[in-house]
Amino acid sequence: MEIRKQNLTRYITPLREGGSLPALAEADDGFKYVVKFRGSGHREKALIADFLGGEIARAIGLRVPEQVFLNLDEYFGQAEGDEEIQDLLKWSQGLNLGVHYLQGAMTLDPYANPVDEATASRIVWLDMFITNVDRTVKNTNMLIWNRELWLIDHGASFYFHHSWSDWEKSAMTQFPYIKDHALLHKATRMREVDREIRSRLTEAKLDEIVDALPDEWLNWDDTSAAASSIFNTENADSVDNADDLINERREVYRKFLHKRLRDMDIVKAVEDARAKQI
To answer: Which residue in 2, 8, 79, 173 is deepest, having the highest Cβ count within 10 Å?
Structure first.
């Protein structure tokens, strides 16, 4: 799986949405991107969740803007006068995540804009699978561009990785927040969609997506817990250098996705949530 790598060349404007302070910027390929910076709130974990969620969405046939790895060097943005942004750029040197900018796109209103039941069911399936808490009526993270529905912003997914406690149990969670999903009321074709998605979203495809994660995103500082408690290894000394940590963390994401795909009854979980909503 090849993800393009480009260099950031011009900081255009901050997009002051939430606490992560993404920005509109230009890269050396001449295209504009919404940039998610590794120096923001949840740092690399937000980029990992955004990338994995977006590529899984693409793999199951949903529209997602192209995702690109964007390199930010130490000289980028030095003319920026805002000290908060200057600090963010300084903390974000290296690879960041860029999402192709959909100029002129409008936020989707799940009640005013038509969404067919099959598409709604696919999106609800996706967000149940990746445990995405951020697709509500208040913040749909869905855009209408060229009269088509596009998904953005999956950085609030995979919330298990903020604690690493019992990831196997997290992989089997019923994900109660699905009750707040903006399209739950239209997700009436879950069984049909589930069969379709499972025919194309294989463990091999998930491996391909996880393997595309940059090593440097997996090399964050996390000294709050021993490696043995994070990765369920018997001996913390077995994870004793950066390469081992990177490999172990990548393996946790891989196993989490495999287990959730193999063992989680997504259809039942969604249908139970719909029954309570009705």
So the answer is: 8
pLDDT digits (tens, 9 = 90+) for 104-120: 999 999 999 999 999 99
Chain centroid, CA 81 distance in Å: 30
**CA dihedral of 261, 179, 193, 267, whole degrees rounded to 10:** 60
Rounded Cα distance, 99 and 65, in Å: 6
CA pseudo-torsion sign 42, 218, 266, 260: negative
Burial (CB < 10 A; 0-12, 13-18, 19+), residue 232, is middle
Bridge partners of residue 57, in order along the sequence: none
Residues 6+ apart with CB under 8 A from 237: none
Helices and strands, number each (H, E), in the chain? 9, 8
For residue 113, what are the CA distances in angstroms to 36, 63, 101, 182, 234? 27, 16, 21, 12, 52
